[in-house]
Structures are given as structure tokens and as C-alpha cells.
């Protein structure tokens, strides 16, 4: 992409730190900190140990929110609802198992986690499969919390040996036991702290592993752009539902531990105050950090503990609020974000300085290489795409009015027409981005009219939107990896495919830079590569050459012409010279209907086509 360089450096290029800099595995700090704290536990005063255990349990609850808010981008105000459900359910089971089992918490904790997961799955089904917006979803989760608070206050019933006492809560809940026999003694506060610490560390490491897995990497893509992730063929709702269920399990587990820690649980656990306290933990610790949930909970807990001891002169709530406001204003990424920024700053001082500008200036696209990537894999049969009498309405506006077209490999097809002709709308009807009001769409004779977008992509449709749609905050390599993984189903194979695409685009030198740092033409090429790396059978491209230089446009025309011999390629474009370079069949749309068809030279000589572009004569009015 030699003709579209970035005029100024955008970010530092990746480099190797000197050997003197010790790079520790990212998973190591958690077990190291856990071991250090375990060694210190015996010397902690029992009352303080008991208090710290409650902070860690609160951190576990915060972790459940950090998982869905920080990692997936969904703010739930219903984590305390899941927390309370798990606590009540686990407590009921523990009370009933206590006479015959020496340590009922061993079964009560998994049961509380299961109840939390099931409740989260139910709420998540409504939120995600109902395609509620962020605000509506947040309100729904908060409403669930308030409903449970009302229900728990009024519930007064016996469940076996357990007694749910309405506003009085539930008492005599078995606590932490040091052993398995019926005569096993209760744990001391220090032993309880050690037990809670180990559980929190294990859950935290499990979450770290999950987010580092292929599943977690796709979830990161959803957080940055759910639309792009679905355009890559992922069922984003399934990923969101699974992660929300996992967060519910963690919240339910935390609720069971809390009930066992205090031997008591009450409806106050569902209160609005408790519900709003959990996001504060995450914000204070760092919204993008899993460990930040624990840092935030310990910070808030420690400040409350210290201020409540008389240091604030009766103004504990006011001072705590001011401290949190200052933290949000001056450290918007929380404590974990501050620590990470300091570490990155120290590392950057020891790394060679370079920019991506020179790398982009010398980058060049290998159109043939990208074409080979798109046609890789086992041989595929001839594709036939048929759109019959498609209709799309937006109120009284009908941008697509009974348009029928068929596409197959052999040569690229282009859709042209004046602004407002319905070209992009027709393309979105074909790709599944718009729900049809009439007509049918088939791929190889299969009716896919009612298929959701991601299923059409899985069936072989590749979709390039009008504006380049990439994960701006993720690296160029990560963008390609997410696109490739949906087809490869293997992390290593996806990485190999991403490397091949980088080589074809000449972007190896900037592979680790954020995709948003690329110039517009670079983002266009990256978006196209993300489509082709999935080896589609039919490719829909909406103005793919927009913002590209002359050299890039010629390379793109060669690429699409080459792809047209093996794939069905459909392009919406305004540039007639670019359409001529494609050399394919051209359809003219006007006022939402098919107006004319043929070669670009024949259409250029057609007075009717000239009339609708220039807005003159009877051809415009009569149509």
C-alpha cells in the first residue's frame, strides 16, 4: 500500500525488549500473590482475617461483573440477584445436609453456583436472544434484582429443615468446617480466610484461562464490535449467553460463601444499594481487568473499615464517595489500569523506538496471494445465489421493490445507479443484514430467506460493509485471527492463516499494532482480507474501493476479477472506471428497481442510463 501511507506515526512498532528485562508469564502473579498471602494468614489478627475474607468474597462477586462488563461490554445490575439466589439456595441445601454430612459446603457451594448459572442463563436468554439494547438489558437485570428483593421480604416458609424468614432472613447456616467427618470442628477465622483465598484464586485463574482461550478471544471481538463478529459468522448471542451464565455461576458461588461466612443471609442482599456497589468495585479496580475486581473490593472494603472506625468523624460515606469520585476522575482505568500503564511505560523506555509509517510506506498488496487464500481448502462445487422479487420497506419508503437477480462464479457482478437507487439496500437484503418484507433468497437451491445473518455467512456468504469495519483496538493480527478461527476451528491453524494474509498484504511489520492505527486504505484492505480469509463462496462488497489510492484500486480490481472466476462476487460501486476494470456483468438500479443490465460500455452508451444519472428527460419521470 505504498501510495497510502500514514502521514504521522500512530503507534510504536513491536520490538523485542533487551534480554535484561525479565518477562514473567501473565498467569504467574495470581498464584504468587496467593502463596504470599497464605504464608501471611497465620499472623493476621482473627477479627481482621474474618473481615478480609468478606472483602475477598465481595471481590469474587465483582469478578462476575468484570467478566461480562469488562470483557464483553454488557453492564449487568443483576449480579447481586444471582449472588442472593446462590446464597439462599446453597444455604437451604447446607442446612438440610448438615445432620448427615460433615461438610455441607462442599455440596452447597456447587449447588449455589448451579442456581446462579441457571438464573443467569434465563435472564441472558431474554436479553441477548431478544436483542435488547445495552440500556434495556441493564434495566432488565436491575428490575430482576428489585423483584427478588420484594419476593424475599415476603417469603416466609419452611424448606425441609431450613426456614426462610422473610424480612428476618435465614439463620443457623453451617459455616466453613475443617474436615469431612460429622465431628469436624468449625474453621477459625484465619483458616476461613485461607480457604476463601484459595477458592478466589482458583476461580480467577479459571476466568483468566477462559478469556485467553479461543472462546475468550471471540468474546473480546464481540466487546469491540458485535456487528463485525456476527458478520464473520459467529453466533454472538450464544457467546454472550454462555459467558453470562459463567458469571452467574461465580456470583452464585460467592453468595453461598458469603452465607456460610456469616452463618446468616437476609433480603438486604438484593437491595439497590448492594446492586450498585458491585459496579463500583469494578470501576475502582479497573473495568478491563479481572484482578481489578478484587482490588476494587478490597479498596472499598478497607476504606469503609478504616473510616468506620472513627477516622472520619461520622462522615464515612461522604469521604468514601469523594475518594471514589477522585479515583474515577484521575484514574479512569482503576488501580489495575494505573499499574499496567506504569509497567508499559517502563518497558517502552527499554524498547527500540520505531513507527509504523515507514512500514506502511513500503507495504504492497499481493492480489494473487489474497485470491489464493480465498480459494484455499477442499474443492467446492459451483455456487448459485438467487434473489427473487426482494422487497424491503422502511415505513412509506421502499428502497428495494421486487428486485430479482442471480449470481454465480464466472465473472464479477457490479451494481450501479445514482444515489438513493437502492444498491446498498439490495445488497444488505441479499446478505441478510436486512429482514425482508417480501421475496426469497436461495443459496444452491436452499431457501435461506429466514436464516439469521451469521448462518448465511456460515453457508458461504462473505460481507464487506460500506465503511471498513475492523476491531480498532485489537491488533491487525488479532483481527485476522478472529476471522480465520471461525473456519479453522483451531487456534494454530487460524494463526497460520492470519500470517499468510498479513504476508499477502505486506503488513507483517505492523501485525501487532492496533488496527485503528492503519490509514483508511489499510483498514479497507484489512476488512477485505478478513472476509476472504474465511474462504467464502459468494462475496458481497459495498464500495470496497472507497478511500483507496489509484494503485490500490487497480490491485483491488485485479483481485475481484480473479476471485470472480472461482467465487460469486457482487460489488456495489460508484466509480465507473473501477467497474470497467472488473470487466463483469453490470446491473443498474433506479428507485429501488432493476433498470438496465449489460456490459459497462453498453450501459455508458445507453441514453436512458445517462438520463437517470443526470436527472434529465422522461426516462427519470416515467420509470
Question: Could you please describe the fold and organization of this structure?
Answer:
The protein has 623 residues and is an alpha/beta fold. Helices cover 56% and strands 12% of the residues. The protein has a six-stranded mixed sheet with strand order 10-11-12-7-13-14, with helices on both faces. Strand 13 (585-590) and strand 14 (593-598) form a beta hairpin. Helix 7 (214-224) crosses helix 9, helix 10 (272-285) packs parallel to helix 13 and helix 21 (550-563) packs parallel to helix 22 (576-582).
The portion of residues assigned to helices is 55-70%
Low-confidence stretches: 1-22, 349-357
CATH class of the largest domain: Alpha Beta
Question: Could you tell me the mean pLDDT?
Answer: 84
Question: What is the gist of this entry?
Answer:
The chain is of the alpha/beta class. Helix content is 56%, strand content 12%.
Indicate the topology.
Elements: H1 29-40, H2 46-70, H3 79-97, H4 105-129, H5 134-154, E1 156-159, E2 162-165, E3 170-171, H6 189-212, H7 214-224, H8 226-231, H9 236-262, E4 264-265, H10 272-285, H11 291-311, H12 316-330, H13 334-349, H14 356-361, H15 367-374, E5 384-394, E6 397-408, E7 413-416, H16 423-431, E8 438-443, E9 446-447, H17 453-458, E10 461-464, H18 476-488, H19 491-505, H20 520-532, E11 538-542, H21 550-563, E12 568-572, H22 576-582, E13 585-590, E14 593-598, H23 600-604, H24 607-614, H25 617-622
Parallel strand pairs: 7-12, 7-13, 10-11, 11-12
Antiparallel strand pairs: 1-2, 3-4, 5-6, 5-8, 8-9, 13-14
Helix pairs in contact: 1-6, 2-6, 2-9, 2-10, 2-11, 3-4, 3-5, 3-9, 4-9, 6-7, 7-9, 10-11, 10-13, 11-12, 11-13, 15-19, 15-21, 18-19, 18-20, 21-22
Amino acid at each position: 500500500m505504498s501510495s497510502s501511507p500514514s502521514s504521522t506515526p500512530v503507534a510504536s512498532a513491536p520490538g523485542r525488549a533487551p534480554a535484561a528485562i525479565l518477562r514473567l508469564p501473565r498467569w504467574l502473579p495470581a498464584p504468587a500473590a496467593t502463596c504470599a498471602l497464605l504464608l501471611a494468614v497465620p499472623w493476621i489478627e482473627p477479627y481482621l482475617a474474618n473481615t478480609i475474607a468478606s472483602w475477598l468474597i465481595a471481590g469474587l462477586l465483582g469478578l462476575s461483573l468484570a467478566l461480562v462488563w469488562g470483557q464483553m461490554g454488557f453492564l449487568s445490575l443483576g449480579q447481586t440477584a444471582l449472588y442472593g439466589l446462590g446464597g439462599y439456595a446453597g444455604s437451604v441445601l447446607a442446612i438440610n445436609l448438615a445432620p448427615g454430612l460433615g461438610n455441607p459446603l462442599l455440596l452447597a457451594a456447587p449447588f449455589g453456583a448451579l442456581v446462579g448459572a441457571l438464573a443467569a442463563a434465563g435472564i441472558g436468554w431474554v436479553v441477548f436472544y431478544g436483542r435488547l439494547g445495552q440500556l434495556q438489558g441493564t434495566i432488565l437485570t436491575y428490575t430482576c434484582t428489585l423483584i427478588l428483593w420484594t419476593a424475599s421480604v415476603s417469603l416466609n416458609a419452611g424448606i425441609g429443615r431450613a426456614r426462610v424468614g422473610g424480612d428476618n432472613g435465614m439463620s443457623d447456616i453451617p459455616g466453613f468446617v475443617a474436615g469431612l467427618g460429622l465431628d469436624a470442628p468449625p474453621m477459625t477465622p484465619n483458616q476461613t480466610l485461607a480457604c476463601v483465598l484459595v477458592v478466589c484464586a482458583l476461580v480467577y485463574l479459571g476466568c483468566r484461562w477462559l478469556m485467553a482461550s479461543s472462546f475468550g478471544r471471540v468474546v473480546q471481538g464481540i466487546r469491540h464490535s458485535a456487528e463485525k463478529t456476527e458478520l464473520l459468522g459467529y453466533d454472538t448471542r450464544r457467546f454472550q449467553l454462555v459467558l453470562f451464565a459463567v458469571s452467574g455461576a461465580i456470583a452464585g458461588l460467592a453468595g453461598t460463601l458469603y452465607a456460610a461466612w456469616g452463618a446468616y443471609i437476609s433480603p438486604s442482599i438484593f437491595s439497590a444499594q448492594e446492586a450498585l456497589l458491585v459496579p463500583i468495585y469494578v470501576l475502582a479496580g479497573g473495568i478491563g481487568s479481572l484482578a481489578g475486581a478484587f482490588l476494587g473490593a478490597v479498596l472499598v472494603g478497607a476504606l469503609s473499615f478504616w473510616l468506620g472506625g472513627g477516622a472520619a468523624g461520622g462522615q464515612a460515606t461522604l469521604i468514601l464517595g469523594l475518594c471514589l469520585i477522585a479515583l474515577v476522575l484521575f484514574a479512569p482505568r482503576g488501580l489495575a489500569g494505573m499499574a499496567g500503564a506504569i509497567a508499559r511505560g517502563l518497558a517502552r523506555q527499554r524498547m527500540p523506538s520505531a513507527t509504523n509509517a515507514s512500514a506502511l510506506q513500503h507495504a504492497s498488496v499481493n492480489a494473487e496471494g489474497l485470491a489464493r487464500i480465498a480459494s484455499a481448502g477442499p474443492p467446492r462445487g459451483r455456487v448459485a445465489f438467487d434473489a427473487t422479487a426482494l422487497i424491503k420497506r422502511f415505513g412509506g419508503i421502499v428502497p428495494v421493490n421486487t428486485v430479482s437477480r442471480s449470481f454465480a462464479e464466472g465473472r464479477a457482478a457490479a451494481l450501479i445507479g445514482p444515489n438513493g437507487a437502492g444498491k446498498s439496500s439490495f445488497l444488505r437484503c441479499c446478505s441478510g443484514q436486512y429482514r425482508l418484507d417480501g421475496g426469497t433468497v436461495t443459496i444452491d437451491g436452499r431457501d435461506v430467506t429466514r436464516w439469521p445473518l451469521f448462518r448465511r455467512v456460515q453457508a458461504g456468504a462473505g460481507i464487506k460493509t460500506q465503511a471498513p469495519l475492523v476491531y480498532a483496538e485489537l491488533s491487525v493480527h488479532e483481527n485476522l485471527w478472529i476471522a480465520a478461527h471461525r473456519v479453522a476451528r483451531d487456534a494454530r491453524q487460524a494463526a497460520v492463516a492470519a500470517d499468510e494474509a498479513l504476508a499477502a498484504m505486506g503488513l507483517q511489520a505492523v501485525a501487532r499494532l492496533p488496527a485503528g492505527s492503519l490509514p483508511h486504505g489499510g483498514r479497507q484492505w484489512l476488512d477485505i482480507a478478513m472476509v476472504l480469509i474465511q474462504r467464502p463462496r459468494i462475496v458481497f462488497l459495498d464500495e470496497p474501493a472507497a478511500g483507496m489510492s489509484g494503485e490500490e484500486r487497480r490491485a483491488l480490481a485485479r483481485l475481484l476479477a480473479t476471485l470472480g472466476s472461482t467465487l460469486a462476487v457482487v460489488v456495489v460501486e460508484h466509480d465507473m472506471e473501477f467497474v470497467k476494470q472488473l470487466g463483469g456483468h453490470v446491473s443498474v438500479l433506479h428507485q429501488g428497481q432493476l433498470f438496465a443490465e449489460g456490459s459497462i460500455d453498453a450501459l455508458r452508451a445507453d441514453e436512458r442510463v445517462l438520463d437517470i444519472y443526470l436527472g434529465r428527460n422522461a426516462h427519470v419521470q416515467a420509470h
